[in-house]
Input
Amino acid sequence: MKNRNRDLTKGPILKQLATLTIPMLFGMIGMVIFNLADTFFIGKLGVTELAAISFTFPVIMFVNSLSQGIGIGTSSMVSRNIRIADRQTIKMMTGRTLLLGLLVVLVFVIAGLFTIRPLFSALGAKGEILGFVEDYMKIWYIGVPFVVIPMIGNNIVRATGDTFTPGMLMLTSAVINIILDPLLIFGIGPFPAMGIKGAALGTVIARSVGLVIILIILIKREKLLTVHLGKLKEIWATWKQVFYVAGPASLALLITPVSIGFITRILAGFGKEAVAAFGVASRVEMFALMVVVSLGTVMIIFIGQNMSKQKFGRIFTAMKYGLVFSMVWGAMVFAVLLFFGKPISEVFTSDIKVSAIAASYFLIVGSSYGFQGLVILSTASFNGLNKPYPSAVFSLIRMLVLYVPMAWIGSKYFGLNGVFWAGFIANIIAGVLSFGFLYRMICRLEGSCQKPEGSSQKSVDKI
Output
C-alpha cells in the first residue's frame, strides 16, 4: 500500500486544498449516494415507507454526529502533532481514540434499542409508519459499531495528509450499499424481499466492509495502531484532548439532527407528504453541499498542521479561497435547483404532492446555500484551530436560536413555506456571523491582521 502522508505547512496552498478536497469529495459523494440510494429504493415501496425513513433521519444523524465529533477531535489532535511528535506517541493516541469510540458505541446501541418506539412516537411517527421505523432501526442500531469505528479511523488517516484513501473507502462502501439495496429490499434472485429491513441490512453489510479495510490500513500500511495504550492516566489524558474538541464538535453536529427532529415534528402537522418531501430535500441538500463539506474536512487538517508551526499567513489564504468558493458554489447549486428542482425530486418519488413540496424547499432554502457553506467552513476551521466552542455556538445560533423558533412561527402564519423561509434567514445570518468571527479569532491568535501569504512576504511558498 502506497503511503500518501503530506506535509501541509509548505507548498502551493490552492493546489493543496484542491488535491486534498477532490478525493475527499469522492468519499462524500459515496456517502451521500449511500443515503440517496436508500431514499430512492425505499421511495419505490410507497409514501408510507418514505415517510418512515424520513423519521429515522434525525436519529441516524445524531449517532453519526456523535461519532464524527470523536473523529474530528482525533483529526484535530493528530494533525497538530503529526509534524512535531514521535511516531510511538501518535500510535498510542490513535489506539486510545478507537477504544473511546468503541465504548461510546456500546452505550448508544443499548440505549437506542430500548427507546425506539417512545422516541419516534415523540417525533410524530404513528401507526403503520412507526412499525416501519421500528423494523429499520432494530437492524440499523446493531450495525452502529461498523459506522463509528471506520469514521474515526478515516479521520486518523486524513490527519496525516492523506484524503485519497478515506475517500475511496467511503465510495467503496456506497457502491456495495447500492448493489445490495435492490437485492434485499425487493428480493431479486435468491434474496428474500425484506422491504425496509433490507435497506437497513444493506447498510450494515456495506459499513462492515469499511470497518475491515480501515483497520487493515491503520495496522499494516500506516502502522498507527498498537495494543500498548499506556497507563490509565495517559489514556485519560488523550481522551481529554479528544473530548476538548470532540465535545463541542459533537454538540455542534448534534444540534442539527435535534433541530431537524423539531422541524420534522412541525412538518408532521402538514401530513406525511410534507415529512416525505423534507426527507427527500434534506438528502438532495446533502448532495448539493458535499463539496463544501469536503473542503471543510480538509480545512481541519490544513489549519491543524499550520497551527502547529504558527503559519497564520497560510491559514488566512486558505480562508479567502474558502469564502470565494462557498459563495460561487452556492450560486451554482441554486441555479440548478431553480430550473431542475422538481425533476430532481421526482427521481425519488412519484407522488406529485411530495415532489411539489420538495421543489418549493429548493426554491427558497437553496438560495442561501452559499451562506450555509460559510457556516460549514467556519465550524470546521474552529476545530482545526483547537478552538471548538465557537463551532458549537454558531451551530446553536443557526438551528435552535434562529431556524426552529422561526419555523414554528412561520408554520403558524405562512404554512409550509414559512418553515422554509426560516431556514433561508437562519443560513444567511449564521453564515455572516460565523465567518466574521473566525477571521477576527485568527487575527487575535496571530497578534495582528496580516495580508494573505504571498502578498507581502517574498520568502513564502507561491500560492
